[in-house]
Every structure is written in structure tokens, then in C-alpha cells.
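Entry 12.
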Amino acid sequence: MPNTQLNTEEPIVNRVASSALIAFNLEDYFQLGSRTLVDIKPWLFQEIVLKEKEFREYVKNHNWQQYQNQFVALHCSADAIIPTWAYMLVSLSLQPYATQVVFGDLQTLETQLFLQSLQKIDWQQYKNAKVVIKGCSKVEVPVAIYVEAANRLRPWAASIMFGEPCSTVPLFKRAK
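Predicted 3D structure (C-alpha cells):
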């Protein structure tokens, strides 16, 4: 009969913790704050035509303070031709209140916020490092940001992987 007892004489070694892998967690670059989508579709005549006088009146009388300290994505969900100045007018009205205004949907907004955070990183700190770009996070990270992080790491890192330190997908390895 085989011995089913564990050999307790040898300590269990956490090879992941003792490896040279550096976990790059994009979640760390998430900017806290409320995100709001401002859709100008309801401000259009029959939700399809921009009438300048009525549009300007709506912008003038809108409660812009409700966007205080928020990240705002500005767009129109109607299939309408909106003059560029209309978005600019709304953006200028938001500017004194909103933390930031971008043209596009909430995904565009999130991508812009992450890009701003990535621009502040000193990428040289990853010189010759084995980097794992973490794949799981508590916040939704746009795919564009994973691509951007990989692109920014490539000139510096010795290798780039994706996933978790215990289970990675190799993406790049610098030739020796």
C-alpha cells in the first residue's frame, strides 16, 4: 500500500513570490471619480435636427453645476449631422464644473483617463525586467490600454507576459 502522507520535512516554496517577475497592474492607474455621459440628442428638434437658436437657449439654461467634479463624455446618440461648434459650445459650458470633458462615449473617456495616467510613468524603471501585465482587475480596463501598456513596455522590458504571475501568456522576449 502506497504511503499517502505528505512529506513535511521540505518547506513549501512559493516560486511566484520569489521570481524576478514584476506585476504591472493597470488597475493602479484608474482615476477615481464619477463618469457621466452627456448625450445632446434630446436637445435637438425632434431628436434629429439642430436648430441653432433653440440649441443655444438649451445650453444657456441647462444646469451645468450638476457635473461638478465629474469626468464627462460628450456625444450624440442620434444619427444626425451635428456641427462641430455645437460640441465645442457644450464643452465650454461644462469646463468650469467638470474635471475633464472628452468627445465620445464612456469607453473613449475611460481610455483617455488611463492614457493620461500612463503618460506619467517612468517606463525606464522596467529596463531589462520580466513584466507581467495583469489581466484581472476590479475595474474595467479598455483593451486599448493593454495594447498601449505593452507598446510602452516593449522598448524597456526583457520580456512581457499577460495574465497572472502564476499563469502567464508570453507575448514578447528580447533577443539576447
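Annotation: The two ends are 51 Å apart (CA to CA). Confidence is low (pLDDT under 50) at residues 12-18.
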